[in-house]
Design goal:
Strand content: 25-35%
CATH class of one domain: Mainly Beta
Number of helices: 9
Bound molecules: zinc ion
Radius of gyration: 34 Å
CATH topology of one domain: HSP40/DNAj peptide-binding domain
CATH architecture of one domain: Sandwich
Order of helices and strands: HHHHHEHEEEEEEEEEEHEEEEHH
Structural class: alpha+beta
Distance between the termini: 72 Å
CATH superfamily of one domain: Urease metallochaperone UreE, N-terminal domain
């Protein structure tokens, strides 16, 4: 019995193909072996197991025939009852059933080890300083990816003469298999399992890739990061992932930004927030303070009678918008810094000041006293 592929991908049975695809992409990225390159063996093994599970679940749920079989029988290979199948020449019943589905769906172009498939997507976590994220920066990324072997041009053979005609299919790439199926006895044309559909068999493998047709290669790539990118955002660089198989397209390279925090500024979308401490006297009398921004410092006027927690907006001094000549705003939150460690003499002097304020307007205290009277 197969696993519950919907559960593996964390989607509902009624999920659309787009929902299934996005769940798969998210999980495949999470468990991708490249992400665990520096992890412990146990973590690597667990991630690899999960990655394969996710891959297989998606293989099934993204294929309409397999999905239908899974939805109906609880297994993508169809019914597992004995008495079904009984195929010849080493084929299992599920192989025949699988090929039967494909024979109907694709007129014999079944999925096989020589069919084109897209290369793996790669994720590259890239550390940026806050300033680099603001200004944009060019970075050189160095990473490993799978590329087609240049020595054998992706054939896996030592040279053009290192092939012979496949003895099983006589070079046709396809064989006919007679088998008993639920629909009766049928002749089904299927991909030759000996040559994998190429019609040729390699007699001497390429020494560079040892016949695998692909090699793991270290690559460097210069990438322009635009100003304004945020922590956790991803830049997709198309076709720079691993090479596809059998002429399939390359995977993509996902650059995941890890932006360091700023000592003073906190980002909120395209705005920046900072906290500015001022003295009680500056709050009472008002003052002008120079505050830093990501560009030049700005003189901010703190008006007379500013409350603790008041927020002052500096327009256009926030983060840069990606791909646009526009900036968010800077929000300066004022906080009163009440002096501590007052001496006996200072206490006496402050007490003497109390009288000065007695006939001033105290809005909050007036409101409070009014409410007190209403209790
Ligand atoms: Zn090679
Ligand atoms: Zn063959």
């Amino acid at each position: 019995m197969a696993a519950d592929y919907y559960k593996v991908l964390g989607v509902d049975k009624k999920a659309s193909s787009d929902e299934i695809k996005s769940a798969y992409r998210r999980l495949a990225k999470t468990y991708h072996p490249d992400v665990f390159a520096t992890a412990t063996e146990v973590e690597k093994n667990n991630a690899e197991k999960k990655f394969k599970e996710v891959q297989h679940a998606y293989d099934v749920l993204s294929d309409p025939q397999k999905k239908a079989a899974f939805d109906h029988y609880g297994d993508e290979e169809g019914p597992q009852a004995s008495g079904f199948g009984g195929g010849s020449s080493g084929f299992t019943s599920s192989d025949v059933f699988h090929d039967l589905f494909n024979a109907f769906a694709n007129a014999g172009h079944g999925r096989n080890r020589n069919s084109a498939s897209q290369g793996d997507h790669l994720e590259y976590p890239l550390n940026l300083t806050f300033k680099e994220a603001y200004e944009g920066v060019e970075k050189e990324l160095t990473f490993f990816r799978i590329e087609n072997c240049t020595s054998c041009k992706g054939t896996g053979a030592k040279n053009a003469n290192a092939f012979k005609i496949c003895t099983k299919c006589n070079g046709r790439g396809k064989i006919t298999v007679g088998s008993r199926t639920i629909l009766g006895y049928m002749n089904v044309e299927t991909v030759c399992d000996l040559c994998g559909g190429t019609g040729k068999i390699i007699t001497e493998v390429c020494p560079e890739c040892r016949g695998k047709a692909q090699n793991k290669v270290r690559r460097s790539l210069k990438v322009k990061i635009p100003g304004g990118v945020d922590n956790g955002q991803t830049l997709t660089i198309s076709n720079e992932g691993s090479a596809g198989k059998n002429g399939g397209p390359n995977g993509n390279l996902f650059v995941l930004f890890k932006v360091a925090s700023h000592p003073l500024f906190e980002r909120a979308n395209y705005d920046l927030k900072m906290t500015l401490p001022i003295t009680v006297l500056d709050a009472i009398l008002g003052c002008t303070v120079e505050v830093p921004t990501m560009s030049s410092p700005v003189k901010v006027v703190i008006p007379e009678g500013t409350e603790d927690g008041a927020i002052i907006r500096i327009k256009g001094r926030g983060m840069k918008h990606v791909g646009r000549d526009a900036y968010g705003d800077m929000y300066v939150k004022v906080t009163l810094d009440i002096p501590k460690g007052i001496s006996h003499k200072q206490k006496k002097q402050i007490k003497e000041l109390e009288g000065i304020f007695s006939d001033c307007k105290y809005e909050k205290m007036e409101k409070y006293r009014k409410k007190l009277r209403d209790i």
